[in-house]
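Practice problem: predict the structure.
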Amino acid sequence: MSAPPKSGWSRAISHKSLPIILGLVIGGCSGALFDALGAPAAWLTGPIIAVAAARYGRLPIAASPTIRDGCFIVLGFTIGSYVDPGTLEKGLDWAPSIALVFVGCLATILLVSLFLHFGNGWDRTTSFFSAIPGSLVAALSIAATTKADLQKMTICHLTRLALISTAFPFVMASLGGLPGGAESQTGQGEFGGAEFGLLMAASVAGFILLRAKIPAGALLGSLAVSLAAHAAGLANAATPSFLLIAAYVGVGVYVGSRIGAGREIFSGGAFIGGMASLTGGLSVAAILALAASQFTSAPLPQLLFAYAPGGIEVMIVLALTSGYDPAFIGLHQIARYLFVTALMLIMSWLQNADSRNSS
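Answer:
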């Protein structure tokens, strides 16, 4: 006798869906709890900490790539909404501080890679890719074409990501660096038909970059459309709070599941490498922030956010929850992302060229 056909709900909530649903439930509840306790960046840090702990404890939690990309589209759109027709002029004023991003990247990579090579005894290629300040997805994609040790590199990056995404907001709050959240955007119009249409266009752009296999494509595609439209004055509205909170939770679950899945995260040399990467990156960021504060009007905590060595997705979410200018922070982080991606491509090309010549 054959089993009765499954109902619509049974098919929708399959055993493959339950780990995703569990992660979202834990993320949403922990975000609400952290928010009630007044924790900084509550809707992001709560899910990251709770889901990472649950995942590390072997609870069957998973993050949906589709949900993750949808959240990045919302966040890219939101960053763009802070831009107005006068932003281009401000962007020219930001050029000197953006130039310091490139200096900071080179200094961080040099310091951390030397430590990993001579202190940890790692080969030069693994040391270089492990020292990259952020851009884990791009780093893994490019390093896979070289002789780098991907396991050491991944643990190193996850250690840095875990610490900066959970501890950094609390450190900034203790320094008075989190004056308010982006969900309380002011000075913008009501989210209407024009904004909804723009969000759909941003989604299409994000999907196109994803299909092109560009790292962080959903975020960058959505951001590009939103920046262009808002700079042209075609839209001017705040992203609805419920949509932003949902995006924070979704990204928090995604980051937490990645961190918690790395059970080797506390393994000897790779963990030390992650600590070195974070310490070196933040030290350089602090020096650059102090230097930039001498010739820009941006507050010192905002500059620290701009130069901090986090993943582009996490730092942009933190920028939104910080209450500072997300466009300023976002443009600096994007500049860093593009610069280190170019450096990694050059390294990959040089190593592959050497391999071809030696063979």
